[in-house]
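PT: before anyone asks, these are the final sequences, not the draft ones from last week. 220 residues across everything. Please model them as a single complex and drop the result in this thread when it's through.
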Amino acid sequence: MTLIDPPVQERADRRGRLAGNWTFFRQWLKNPLAVAALSPSSQKLAREMIRQLPEKANRVIELGGGTGVFTRALLDNGVAPENLMVVELNAELHQLLQSQFPGVKVVCGNALDLERIVEREGFASDGGVDAILSGLGLLSMSKGFQRRILSAAFSALKPHGRFIQFTYGPASPVSRDLLTELGLSVQRGGVAWRNVPPAAVYVYTRSRSKPVHAVRVGRR
Ligand SMILES: C[S@@+](CC[C@H](N)C(=O)[O-])C[C@H]1O[C@@H](n2cnc3c(N)ncnc32)[C@H](O)[C@@H]1O
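LR: through. Structure below.
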């Protein structure tokens, strides 16, 4: 085992974060709608997201990993690398995540195709997923995209599984109509006031009264 001097390690971590932030900003310049934020989320927001995980969450999917702020927090909070799958659309960010988290299944793909990805990777083959953490810019997506992403997500989640989402908006980024249509309930979690901009966390689960039906639609 190689021992690294803590200040040296801290400087290396800081350099790594700065390089990640710069890559993230360049991707935002190329595609502001998809990247949906100028800079990665803060540790405070990561903590608010992690707080909403079900107790003993074993298998977890992260959508829109970016530079890996939530990925790191999930691993630090006991999710085993082999039980974590990250789906990232942007090829450069995907490469960055792969190099930073070698033990994690990092897929370059579209959250719209989550059902197919989960099946292909055999990720939910033995009982389903406990939680999905989403860093996607759900608020700026059409209702059609939201419907497809949530249906695919709930087809992978266990019956009591949670879809955990943050938003910069003042309310749930998914409308009441769509929640009713999909048989979902929402609860507001914490707010990370010091995130830039401040962000609130919402948790979506299946309503007891109505099951979520998968929406099968063609490719974009
Ligand atoms: C707001 S950033 C969040 C990044 C990171 N989770 C964080 O909180 O710092 C949104 C991320 O989702 C990715 N993304 C956008 N649309 C996506 C899609 N349809 N499927 C998978 N990833 C997507 C973007 O490339 C970007 O990395």
